[in-house]
Amino acid sequence: MGTEKYSSEVKFIASPQELVYSHLANLKNLEPLFDPNRLKELKNLHPDTPDIQLDNFSATADECSFSINPVGNIGVQIIEREPSKLIKLTGSQSVPFQVNCWIQLLPVDENSCKVRITLHADLNPMIKMLIGKHLKNGVDHMADALSKLQYS
Q1: How many domains, the chain?
Q2: From 56's CA, which of 38, 39, 107, 148 has a CA 20 to 30 Å away?
Q3: 49-84 confidence digits (pLDDT tens)
């Protein structure tokens, strides 16, 4: 097994860094995004979004879990926060391999910032071959989604 690193493109967010950080640093704030009607709206607005079925979302400030069809149950928890700059997450025991995710925020000016997502995953060569491309696409889609959220 080796640790693979997948980094998203850097995306621009038209909201202040502190506001974006405070929203993302509480996983409970993501709950409205997982509403099935909201997911349909987003798919209609952004038809290039991959068809992923998410269900059973539940969250606290530090942890969330959900189901992805056909993968199964996934859990994520925040393991470190660096105010206004960085949120580090890790997968729960339900994730089939060790994974860490960093959400990095950088100021552009007082009303905007940039975001980059980096995923570190311990993958064996066979798993890497099967899902490596999907993980890279996934971090790019997550960064793009974060750039389109309303943080006010």
Answers
A1: 1
A2: 148
A3: 656 667 788 899 999 988 776 667 788 999 999 999
